[in-house]
Amino acid sequence: MNNFDQDTLNTQGLNRFLSKMYAYMAGAVAISAIMAFVTARFLQNTIFASPMMMLVLGIVSIVMVFSLSFNPNRAPATSIAMLFIYAAIEGVFFSSILTTFATKNITMAFVSAAVVFVILSIFGLNTKKDLSRFGRQAMAALLALLIVSVINLFLRSTAIEYVFSYVGVVIFTILTAWDTQNMKQLYLQYGNQFETTSLAVNGALQLYLDFINMFLYLLQIFGHNDEN
């Protein structure tokens, strides 16, 4: 097989992998949205009235996200099921958004997040620049943001919350490009060593988290601006 044929096969394999990854990511977002609506419409009073149920769902969610992140070589059906179950649980927690924020703000935040996500994901796939340094810096900034957010739970400062909403958007914008590039490189380097469907699910999880967090921070910005 000549180099042209090999390059064609590599490109076709990469395209199939990326198609799977984005399809799973889109499916996870859709499941979260559906579960948020169903919970807000029919189940919110029941679920949120039970602290034990909320605790169990929270623990299951954390276990699943760590399991999916650190074991990308499990059976494909198991990986897909875990991703969608995790997305459904997150949708339950997101249901409070529908009763807290105006519909126009939710729509604006979702559309804005989708546009930014698509642009940065395309950039991550096509740029020749190594984004790993920026990704590591974004992860460090995210850790600092989480610490400040925890502190702000006690301070209850709307100013801090508002400012760091912008920081959060910037962080997850960078992470979107980095995670996209990283998953492309992982496939090209190790695609023959992993079950590619499970690897695609792992990438879908990373991008799902990037998109959802970007959406949540944008929603805080739009909601704050609307109040003022």
From TrEMBL:
State the UniProt keywords alphabetically.
Membrane, Transmembrane, Transmembrane helix
Where is the chain membrane-spanning? 21-42, 48-68, 80-102, 108-126, 138-156, 162-178, 199-222
Q: Which domain of life is it from?
A: Bacteria
Where is the protein localized? Membrane
Its placement in the membrane is given as: Multi-pass membrane protein
Q: GO CC annotations? A: plasma membrane
Task: Please give the Pfam families that the UniProt record associates with this protein.
Answer: Bax1-I
Fetch the PANTHER family from UniProt: BAX INHIBITOR-RELATED, PROTEIN LIFEGUARD 4
The UniProt entry's sequence similarity note says: Belongs to the BI1 family.
Kindly provide the name given to this protein in its UniProt entry: Bax inhibitor-1/YccA family protein
